[in-house]
Amino acid sequence: MRPQNLTAEEQYNKMVNTPVSKLITGLAIPTVISMLVTSVYNMADTFFVSHINTQASAAVGIVFPVMSIIQACGFTLGMGGGSLVSVRLGQKRNDEANYIASTAFFTALGIGALITIFGNIFSNQFLSLVGASETILPYAHAYARYIFWGAPIMCASFVLNNVLRSEGKAFFSMIALTSGGLINIALDPLFIYGLGLGISGAAIATLVSQSISFLILLSWFLRGKAVCRMNIKFYKPTGQILGKTITTGLPSLARQGLSSVATILLNTAAIKYGDAAVAAMAICGKIVWFVGSLMIGIGQGFSPVSGYNYGAKRYDRVKAAYFFMVKAGVAIMTSFGIVIFIFANQIMQSFIKDEAAVAIGVVALRWQIAFIPFLPVIVGTNMLMQSTRHIKAATFLSMNRNGIYFIPAVLILPNVLGLFGVEITQLVADIFSAVTAIPYLIHMFRKLDRLAKDQPQS
């Protein structure tokens, strides 16, 4: 069903009065579809590239930190701007929302351009630094150079995507991301095999599909389908606007930035056991990310509901939205986790035929997927804090899974347990991250209860 073009007032009433279960479901379905399509076409790159050889498969994992850096910049401005936009719209301060959205968008384009310039100049040095061996480096360079060229549109797309979601218009975002994803999946085999471009073909397919998604996303704003207006005249890179946007997006910067560092350290630890280990961990990471993206999609359906209602002082709805999100997330994560645990061997074999890589990947996949039902607490609590502008707590929580707990684990466990330590690093980090989130959640709920009691009775 096509969404109605609601006025700002109608959108406000929808976000603060619709039952949260219905509202989050309606917002989460398109975001989950968007995240799934994004994950599928990322996995498609890995799937088709893995059939070239083990080194090509490992190269995709080596280039992942590049993607993480681009995502870190885009998510910082996108999630920061989106969180502020949803609160401003909840407060009916629509003009301020326009300034925030436009400033985040044009800043993202500029930062992406810098990544393109410096990435292409220092490509080989960077890829060697993040763990590319002499046999992997040529494949990694062939893949990364096109990813660097796509940095501006990727960064800006994250902003457009998150602003639409913050308005409660996730359907428009879904159309753009799904279109790009399906095109990417179709172009991968054509470019890689049909045109004989090899691993470069996968990167070109990604660049083309990302460009198409960007144009579709931008068209919603240019055609007046969004509440916010995207215009250079609203670009105000002041501390009040850009500063607050970056500050609010710090949890995303910490999460994605540390994800890049974590992947570098994981690749460095895995390369000691050969190219097969790097390839196995890269494939395992994409599969776990596929499942985790479902939870992130649900969380992104929750985030604008939380931000709108926190801004509108409907604290009871913020709590109800969180509980619904976590219950739905646990049910979905558990279902997928069981299936992947049972069929881990068959799943790995579908990606790569290298027996050593399959053996390593199966162990890592089963250990990591066993804890996936607890991911809703980690993701949900982080998004609750970020959407309500509890920035310090959100930043700390976002640093745990890929930083505060992961980095010591990946530095210590492989030295103590060898290859098995590499395989279980993410599991250990996830356990500690979930345990750490619980006290923050309890404190936040107590605060929401106090704020609700202080509200004047109507």
Automatic annotation (TrEMBL):
One of its GO terms (molecular function) is xenobiotic transmembrane transporter activity. It is found in: Cell membrane. InterPro entries: MATE_fam (IPR002528), MATE_MepA-like (IPR045070), MATE_MepA_subfamily (IPR051327), MdtK-like (IPR048279). Coiled coil: none annotated. It holds the Pfam family MatE. Keywords: Antibiotic resistance, Cell membrane, Membrane, Transmembrane, Transmembrane helix, Transport. Its main location: membrane. The keyword Cell membrane applies. The keyword Nucleotide-binding does not apply. Belongs to the multi antimicrobial extrusion (MATE) (TC 2.A.66.1) family. MepA subfamily. NCBIfam families: matE. This is Multidrug export protein MepA.
